[in-house]
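Note to self: keep these together.
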Amino acid sequence: MQLSSSGIDADIRKNHAVSATITLLGRDRKPAAKQEITVAQTHHQFLFGCTGSSIIALANDELKGDAKSQAESHADSLTHLFNFVTLPFYWGRFEPKRGLPDTARITRTAQWFTERGCVVKGHPLCWHTVSAPWLLEMSDEKIVEAQLARIHREVTDFAGLIDMWDVINEVVIMPIFDKYDNGITRMARRLGRIGIIRATFDAARAANPRAILLLNDFDVSAAYECLLEGCLEAGIKIDALGIQSHMHQGYWGVEKTQSVLERFARYKLPIHFTENTLVSGTIMPPEIVDLNDYQVEEWPTTPDGEARQAEEVVTHYKTLMAHPQVKAITWWGLQDGGWLKAPSGLLRIDRSRKPAYDALAKLVKGQWWLPPTKMMTDENGKVRVEGFAGEYSVTWAGKSKTFELGREASLELVL
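Structure:
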């Protein structure tokens, strides 16, 4: 498998690598001339994400013994590689009984992640699947009221802790969804696609004007483009565009991925690849239309599949990173056996790391990372630092200081 451009690494560095001249001063503000210092990256600006639901029990101290030890191992694998997590707000699970939302547990989980330097996103505020069953007891008008009130409550309650949301999920199919009745499809039919997007985005924006609000969908056909165009023409402010790529039926390939990127890049919005999966076992049959329809007793990972998955993960991430509008990539499920029992995790069932995990780590914490590196300041206390945008530390004479690489061409640090 080859990338379409031999210069893809150059494109990645062009999009994400930055440099700055650091002037290091002592407390007396005299330049630290001809001094050996150590510079190390501590955090990526780019959002490398994963789902965080697997941490909820651990973060809430609900585990003991072996279960807790295994969860801690899982958590180490997650936080070593990722700086961005998506926490679940599926209404039917978050508030199965009206008036009893799971706010406290999700709050503690979000705090657990932020304490470890992760940006947290909530997913989703509005979706027809896993919807609250008690909505069906209401009139259409009351469903709309309840949905908007729900958005206001969650976005307000979590402001400052969660300031990024998938506001509405999979709205292209929402008004024509016919597998089972639900309150949100009723709402979508009543308001129309653009109407429900406007209503939900307006509610979220009013609750937290600083929040980053996404429109998210698995449908990458012209229908999503038309919907997006309609929203923008209607004056709806969308902060970022979410694109899903669940590749249980095989890797999209570089050509399709680049085509999707170019089609959606023309809207000049940041692009988040919000849900990414590649299987390390048997590929799902191509005739399956809805991935949820593929029900199997077991879906094991295989050595050949793991080798394929590792190669595809590297190609997929590099293809996305090479595009200037891609700002976040989220792997959907760290461990095998979650959604649809698929072997789509980066960890096996026993939580051991697959080749795909190691291959991605070699990019995120290797090729795209500056490890502790010794440098020498010049006679004016200056040193040139180059690396991927993010947070760095500089250590000199037993003292350390953090700084951001990416915003300024020159920085002055006093140690």
